Amino acid sequence: MNTSQQRRISRQHRSTLRWIVAITTIALVFDGYDLVVYGTVVPSFLRDPSQIGHLSVAQAGALGSYALMGVMVGALTAGAVGDHTGRRRIMIAGIVWFSVAMGLSAFATSITVFGVLRFLTGIGVGALVATAAAIIAEFAPPHRRNVYNAIVYSGVPAGGVLAAVMALLTSGGDSWRTLFLFGAAPLVVLLPVTLLRLPESPKWLLARGHTERARLLSERTGVTLGEARAVEDKKVGFAALASRRYALPTVLLGLMSCSGLLLTYALNTWLPEIMGQSGFGKSYALVFLLALNGGAIIGGVLASRVADRTGPQRVITSTFVLAAVSLTLLTLGLPLGVLLALVAVAGIGTIGTQVLVYGFVANYYDTRARAAGVAWCAGFGRLGGIGGPLVGGALVSAGISPHTAFYAFAGVAVFGALVNLFVPRRSAEADAVPASVPGRPSAETAGVLAYESLR
Known about the structure:
The chain is globular. By secondary structure, it is mainly α. The longest helix has 45 residues, at 3-47. The chain is built from 20 helices and no strands.
């Protein structure tokens, strides 16, 4: 293959990757919006029973967990079928499901109806979160996967920033309904683009035996098919996770994700209320949410660049430790500016760490188990996410000082760092066997070309 053909292929890959990154990032922006928007309205629900009924602090924590239960169901379901039906179908179904449920939530008039709709919304969120990393891992160039994964999953804290800004711009009465109705926007603005521009993964097609379709789609998208795997073990999806090769890492990665998501959801749900109890008004409390998620966006992308050079495990350990230190320092009663800086650092160590975890997991498994592996970590990890609002609610309702809550969250970060140290150092890419597909460059050549064109 001459240089001109190779450059044409790299241009095709660059165009395809840009659309995929844009679509998945926007989808996760609205996932993050859903995560944080509930935290912004909790104070209003607690103080105004006319909205959805009289709500106690414990009930508010439970409502926050209903969505996360749905996320667990959606993620595990997507993992069960995603390695069989493909990435594209799951993404489309997740966008539709999430948007419809979010829009209906705006019209809830009782705690029960609102809780059911939060659970249903979570199912769509789980499907999207569990599938995005698998798509990026199979389309991004090998030497940039952590960065592109971080860009996409930074959509989650970006959505948190969007929710905090929207909450600052609206206040009082039924304004929360507008916030939830806005969450249905992907049905109008994202779904049509997804139907037109999101391709199926050629690597998934090849792994499922659709060789001709994979070759044709590879030619159209410029994606190399160099990750075909020549192994006797044909287990797919969750069955592959239970194999000798992946069983122990799967348990440890699930626990690590559980820690990261507990911190993510606990802080996004209860940080406004905790800071409010520390003497900061609503506006200041929402600014803390902006700092938390803003720090996660910037820090997550920067940390992922280091992860591409040194490997993700060392970086994840460092960011977990960073979270523990910053959360502990938040108990010292420091000036507002310093507190905001520490909250931003905590965002890097909590939400930013979870972004790195998803990238680590997506590249740890091969194509046959990738969707299931990410779904396991997103789904099982939601046990921590479910516990986050509940633990936060229990701490707040117990009337203990905010310091105790921060100490508890710091302990979870230390646990995540320790678990990460025991994950075996294995890379799915190291075991890949280049596929022989006529007319395509080798995996190494195409990967280097794509990498250079995307720098």
